[in-house]
Each structure stands twice: as C-alpha cells, then as structure tokens.
Design a protein that fits this description.
By secondary structure, this protein is of the alpha+beta class. It is 64% helix and 13% strand. It has ten helices and six strands.
Length: 470
Amino acid sequence: MRFFLLFLLLLTACNPLRPSSLKLPALPQTYATEQTGTMTQLSEHWWEDFNDPQLNQLQQQLFSNNLNLRQALYRLQQLEALRKISGASLSPQLNLSGSLSRDQSPSITGDTRSTSRLYSLAASYEIDLWNKLRDTNKAAELRLQAGESDVQALLLSLSAQLTEQYFLAVEQQAQLQLLRQQSVLKADFLQTVTERYRAGLATATDVYQAQQNLAVIQTQIPDRQTALIQAENSIALLLGQLPGSVAITRVELPQLNNVVDIGLPADLLARRPDVTETFLQLQAADHELAAALAEKLPTISISATLGRSATHLASGDVEGTFWNLLLGAAQPLIDGGRRQAATEQQKAVRAEKLATYQHTLLTAFQEVESSLVAEKNSIVKATRLEHQRWINQKNLQLTQDNYLYGLTESRDLLLIQMTQLEILGQQLSHRQQQISQRITLARALGGSWMAEKVKQQQQILKQEQDGTND
C-alpha cells in the first residue's frame, strides 16, 4: 500500500501534461505615425479633459444605470459561480444519508414486524493525478478574469458612445444657432432685393433666388432639430431612461489644440481590456486542452462510508456500526473515440483563441495608428479652415467699411456675411469631427480606470441583491 501511494506521488510530480508556455508576439518599438508638436497626457478619466460638468455627471449616471453594463455584471456573476463549481471538484465530497423503514410480513407463527434505522456518512475524493481537476479549475478562473476584462471593454465603449452622442448634440445646438443667424440674414437680404425690385433696380429672378436661398436654410433646421433629439434620446437609452428625459444645455464645442502623448506600443497590452481578455481566453483554452489530454489517463479515487444501523425484530434487536474504505482505479480503454475527439476539439479551440488574440492585438495597433493619422490631418484641415475664415473676415471688414462710405451695396455685404457663417458652420462640423477622433483615440488607447469602476458596480449590485434577499 505504501509503495502504491509513493508511486502516485511520483506520477503527480512528473506530470507531463502541463499547459504550453505562451509567448507574446514581438511588438514594434514605436508607432509608424510620427507625432509632432506639444504633447499632453490624457487624464485617466479622459472625458474630464473637456471640462464639462454636465458630461461628467452623465458619465456617472452611465456607470450606475446602463442596462447593458448591468447585464454584463450578471454574466460575470455566472462566471464566478462556474468557477466555484469547478473548484469544488478539488475538495472531498461528503454526504449524509439516513432511512427509516417499518415492515410487516406473514409467517407461520403470525405477522412479523420489523423496524430499521440507518444513518451514514459517505465521503469520496478523486486524486488529481494528472492535474486534470486543477487545470479545469484554472481554466474557470481565467474565464472569470477574461469576463472581467470583457466588462471593462464594454465600459470603455459605453463611455466613448456617451461622449460621442453628447458632443454630437452640442454640435447640433451650435449649428442651429448658425442656421437661425443665416436665416435672419437671408430674410434681410430677401427684403432688400424685394425693395430693389419694386424700385426697378432688381429683376424677378433676383427675388426668386433670394427666396430660394432663404428656403434652403429653413429646410435645414428641421434636420438639425431631429439630429439633436436623436442624440439626446441615444444618451437617455445609455442611461437607462425614457426618451425625452435628457436635455443637453451646452451650445459651444471645445477646441482641441494639443497632441496626445500615446506612449509606447507595449503599453497597449496592459491598457486594452479586449487584448487582455483574448489573452486570458487563450490561457484558459490551454488549460482545458491539458485537462482533455488527462481524460485519457488513469483515474484514482478514494471513497469511505461510516454509519450505524438498528433493526428491531420480534426475536430481538440487531444494532451496530458499519464502515468501508475503497480505493479505486480506472483506465479508459474503448470509448468510441470520444476522448480523442474531445482532445482534437480543444486543440482547435486553442488554435482559434490564438488567432483571435493575434487579430485583436493587430486591431489595437491599427486603431491607434488610424487615430494618429486622423488627428494629424485634422489639425492641418483646422488650420486651413481658420485661414479661410480669417481671409473672409478681412474681406467682411473691408466691405463693411466700404458700405459705410457708400462704396458697396448692402447686397454684397449680406453675401459676405452669409459666407462667413457658412465657414463657421464648416468649422463647427470639423471641430465635432476632431472631438470624435479624440474619443476614438482615447478608446483605442484603453486605460486602467475601468477596473475600479467595475469593482464598484459589482459591490453595488451585490448590496442590492443582499437587500432583496433580506
């Protein structure tokens, strides 16, 4: 018996079914897109860099009320339960059973009655000879960690969606203001042309053209109003609220003049929760493959029973303690290829997870590089739009001076004023595009703030559940 136990210990120590060593792919030293200019670090809570109290408040509501996040937290609880179920197989199992019976049977001497009582404790334990149970439990732990990273990725995505919709609504507010200003100018222009037509200084075509220009501007207003309401309703949905419950008050878009310091490519491995999640899934698949291989090998189990029985007969009582101890071993021989197929399946799963991890990592780099190119070119475009506005502003000032001295007609002045408003509208659209690109970059760079928020929401959810159970 001692020799047998020593043999088992040696087998366990020399277990060849260890998960393979996972090597990270070689990472570039720098990003391909060169950054120039004064750089600044994004804040950990990057949306706070916009210095908008309403946006900050909406983000806090998002963390507490978003229903997609709530669903993800419940899925995380399911993974935690599965991990506990898996870990239970590493511990001995103990069951208490009991029975009470009363029998009556006929005999030559009359009816015979008996009463029996039985109480027993049954224990069982499987020796984890090939780390099959430990690998299965480790895989469950890694799945749970991957689930946490998945929730963090969702939280990052939700915060980006909220910020995107918020500044989309702000842009619509600003564009509506410009459209109303243009509408006033074009209405004044129409009045001027109409008066000139009555005085015989303009044609009917001029009047119709002025009316058409005013109608074009007025036609754009409902579309902007629709886009504003849709953005506000999208925010309400993100906050778990009914449509119409959110109103954006800001009417000016912030200017982005700084260049973001994005760090080194290696930073993405720690900052991107989706990269972390796919790597953990790959590790879990590796342990599950080791467990599948161990299914082909012998299993050793120990079981024991201890109990007491009592039987009351007419001829006397039979009472006493009983026990048994069993050491069992099993070696799979023929299973129709089931275990081999399970191993092949796990090998394919591991290969799939490896490809998923590699693709996720490449996607992360692609998103950062694309965001850097977009930011770089958007700065160039913003500079040229500002130059265009400056030129038209100088022209407007000159035209205003000439108008005061009677050298320019009011029609020419109104046309330049309307051109200036159109340029301002283009600048607004581009500024919103720049903000959207900054949001995309912040999302591509990831962060560490999500882990703390997920823990907080897990605690809040647990408190809510405990309160419901009470």
